[in-house]
Protein: DNA alkylation repair enzyme
Organism: Coprobacillus cateniformis
Amino acid sequence: MTESIKNRYNYESLYKVAMDIQSVYEAFQVDEFLKSTMDDTWDGLELKDRIIKISDNLGQYLPAKYSEAISIIDKIVMNYGNWLDGFAGFFPIFVEIYGQHEADWDMSMGALARYTQYASSELAVRAFIIKDEKRMMKQMIEWSKSDNEYVRRLSCEGCRPALPWGQALISFKKDPTPILPILEQLKNDISIHVRKSVANNLNDISKTHPELVTKIARNWYGKSKETDWIVKHGCRTLLKNGHRDVLAIFGYQNTMITVESFALSKNAIFIGENISFSFVISTKEETKARLEYGIDYVKFNGKRNRKIFKISEMTLKNSERKQYTKKHSFADISTRKHYPGIHSLTLIINGVEQGKLDFELRSRKVKV
């Protein structure tokens, strides 16, 4: 995914940016900006590094006076969608790089709030949190009350302890308490984008403070359909990990569900192929069932690492039987490379392992 996104930051899109800047600031040197940005290092840069390089280079060709540069950006930022989508915008990163001086604080806060509507400021705010947590979190709480849903989302997404591609907020990993007022403020927000951010923030917190998130889940669950969705999505890691108290909140008790005929289609496959497995479940009394399976992947060093995959959630009726067949691919993808060796597939129901089967993943011989 990041590969395809980073390739959107190309000559064509940056040329459009440069020409729009020049349309409101005639002194902007289009060719020099493009040449210095897309230099010999460009092809080797990943997504975040490309964004940083664009942002940094803008500072070399816009006016040296920060307020004048912001005034120019303000005149064209609404065109962002004509050049790129709103992911990881370089104008907010420009604010992060050049706008952290004390005298520029208010101007930078206003710019981040304006720019996040076109190109999310979620990555840029983190440097301000790290520099002055108390002051910035006060600002984030104010943003959580904004009339603009993008600004409200920024208040939550920007303070996630482990935002992907963002600087880790170590202090919030140790103590997420400063985040909680924002989550409370936004838990019933009318915007699904804001509620999703609340859920993602909870999921981040759950990785270091599972009992805190369990307590929040108990307090929020059953109050509204909005908070029910947030809690379920925010507890997804705890559910995958089989956290008993969280499973119980959603009614997934360790009840008597019988598993029969759990089997693999093959005992060995080649990298790039699929493996199928099947099973039958039944129960004598109505019960909720959360079906998952785990793959114990062989890593490059020979050790194994488990990944959990969801199959389904349902309510089984009295004396009901259900048969399942599931296929899993072992084709290499950008986020996972496969290695030969003995793998395992484990069936998990309501957080409890119900059977494990081994199979061999083989390297396909190259014909010569």
